[in-house]
Structure formats: structure tokens, C-alpha cells
Amino acid sequence: MRKLLAAAILMAGLVGLSASAMAQDLPIPGVEPAKDQPGAHEYPDPKLTYKFVFDLSGGPDSPDKVNPGLRGVAEFINTLAKYNVPASHRQLVVVFHQKSTPAILMNDEYKKRYNTDNPDIALVQAMKKAGVDFRVCGQAVLGMKIDPKTIQPEIQLDLWAGMTIPNMMMRGYQHLEM
Fold first, then answer.
1. What pTM value is reported for the model?
2. Beta carbons of 102 and 144 less than 8 angstroms apart
3. pLDDT for position 12
């Protein structure tokens, strides 16, 4: 009985250790992956390549809050990683336009416009490091009178989201609105 109890304690410790190690190995720090759902049938498949273009048109409730769509993409990335989808099988593009456009600004310009630091910069940088490709709609940049020099260096300026998204779809990316 003691051997069985010792084995159970050791196993519980290893499970706890692997869970904490897994949390440290997630590509986007501070963002939880999707919670496990007992009985769920579909999970990320490490054999598949996930090619998605995320359409970010919405913004946060206030300028001091992280864009919820951006946070959703980070959760998506960490969920794929949690289920061992390799980075080489995660081909993700985020397109900012409409109300999400302010997230692209460097901190100085964001602070001038909104009187607060840009809460999205750290998330954009972490996601870029994880291999995410960022784009912004040039028409939104023009409409908001944004100087392209004030766009974060991680973000590519494109002509128009209305062209970037269909082009990515024709290149085999699936479209997800966030």
C-alpha cells in the first residue's frame, strides 16, 4: 500500500511539474490557452498546419485596455502550443483595420492621441517573436491621419485590408474575424 501511495504522490508531483513547465513554454507570456473541456472531440492537431488570417476590426472599450481581438489571437497561439502544434505549423497573420487600428501606434504617438500608454505593444512584440505576421490597412491609416513613421516596426503597412484579407485567403489562409 505504501508503494502505491508513494507512486501516486510522485505521479501527482510530476503532473504538477509538467503543467507548470507547459505554462512556462507557452509562446505568449501572461495569456492563458483555452481551458480543457472534458468530453470535447476536436482539439488542435499537431499534424495540421494552421494558416489563418485574423481580421481585427474591433477595438477595446477604452484606450487603456488591450484589444480583445489581439488577446484572442494570443490565446489561439498558446492553445496550439499547449497541444504541441509546432511553430512551423502555425502560419498566422493579423490584419488591423477600423477600430483596431490605434493598436499599431508606437507608444509616443499613442500617448499623444489617447493620454495613456499603448497597452498592445508588449502583446504585438511577443506575438511577432512567436512568428505572427502583422499588417495594417493603409486606408485606415490615411483615415486616422497616422504618419507611417509612427507605426510599430513589427507591423507592415498594406494598401487596404479589403485586399490583404482576400489575397491571404487565395494563398490558402482561413479567415477568422476577431
1. 0.86
2. yes
3. 45
**pLDDT per residue as tens digits for the range 72-128:** 999 999 999 999 999 999 999 999 999 999 999 999 999 999 999 999 999 999 999
> In 26-131, which ranges are continuous DSSP H helix?
68-82, 107-114, 121-129
CATH topology of domain 50-177: Hypothetical Protein Ychn; Chain: A, (3.40.1260)
- Looking at residue 28, what is its pLDDT? 97
Backbone angles phi, psi at 64, to 5 degrees: -90, 5
d(C-alpha 89, C-alpha 135), whole Å: 20
d(CA 178, CA 175): 10
> In a 3-state reduction of DSSP, which class is residue 107?
helix
Domain ranges within the chain, ordered by starting residue = 50-177
CA-atom Rg of the chain in angstroms: 19
Per-residue cell: 6? 508513494
